[in-house]
Amino acid sequence: MKPDVVSELANPRRSCLSVPASAPRLIAKALASTADEVIIDLEDAVAVSAKDEARDNVMSTLSGPVTADIHVTVRVNAPRSAWIAADVVALAGLPRLPHSIMVPKVEASDDLAMVGRLVEEHGGAGRPPIELQALVESARGLTSLAEIVRGAPRPEALVIGYADLAADLGRDPIAELWGPAHEHVLWHARSVGIRAVDGPWLGVHDDEVFRASVNRARTAGFDAKWVLHPAQLGFVNAAFAPTVEEIAWATEVVQALEAAGSGVLARDGQMIDEAVALRARRILASLS
User: Fold this and answer.
1) How many domains does the chain have?
2) For binding substrate, which residues are annotated in this chain's numbering (predicted)?
3) One domain, residues 163 and 49
């Protein structure tokens, strides 16, 4: 376990539950939920008048005991906002850092670099670097992904933010329109070996449409889904867990390659090469 991080987790991150930093009761409920990751939100979920109080809530929460079973992420305010420096400096001064910081409205690698510098300058020097997640919420962010994923520090994950992205594009956040954006985010995430996370479906009371959005993201190849309500966690966790058939297939592929002592072989009429092996290992890794 890293001594100065809330915990070092091995469990898969399938579900990411967002909660306003201005609501301590909801934060406590989220941390006791079945979410794999809890995102404590200092940005859009918090009114301007409550920014300072919300930041204090985060500091209080992360200064106390936090379950080792949940990955704790803090979404700070946007890089070009009036609150970003105060958010990051406060987090950097904690004796235990959150697992990751989600940076919203990322449009260039410099946005992540600025956050990384603030962490290091205000208490993070000499400690393991904190993970940064890049929340993509604009056309400029989408078209800058090649630069963002290859910048320093490299993001740990790319996340789609539908509400702001839809507003920037001048469209309704209708699920059927997001195929090209899904592919763009996924391709760039996979090109550097990082996670791709689907953003929240905003119609929280339409279970059928929500479930369709989860299945669409899972089928597309995303690693996780961001949700807005604890009632959505069970379906997301089940949807993103590998099936019994997938686990059996992946186990057989890895065992066959190890037994053959080769990176390529034919099995049951299928050529198994490094690309197939990578998918198999990814499935098995999601179980740990």
Assistant:
1) 2
2) 75, 137
3) yes
Instruction: Kindly report the backbone phi and psi dihedral angles of residue 136, in degrees, each rounded to the nearest multiple of 5, phi listed first.
Output: -95, 115
Q: What is the rounded CA–CA span in Å between residue 187 and residue 49? A: 39
Neighbours of 246 (CB within 10 A): 15
Specify whether 265 is located in the same domain as 175: no
Are 118 and 196 within one domain? yes
19 & 82 share domain: yes
Residue 90 belongs to domain spanning? 15-241
Q: Taking the CB of residue 98, how many other CB atoms lie within 10 A of it? A: 23
Q: Is the pLDDT of residue 44 over 60?
A: yes
pLDDT tier for residue 7 given thresholds of 50, 70 and 90: very low
Q: Same structural domain for residues 172 and 254? A: no
The reply, when asked if residue 53 is annotated as ligand binding, is no
Q: Is 246 annotated as a binding residue?
A: no
Query: Do both 132 and 249 map to the same domain?
Result: no
Helix, coil or strand: residue 218: helix
Residues 30-58 as b/e (b if ≥16 CB within 10 A, e otherwise) read: bbeeebbbbbbbbbbbbeeebbeebbebb
Per residue in 118-141, pLDDT (tens digit) is 999 998 667 888 899 999 999 999
Q: Is 190 annotated as a binding residue?
A: no
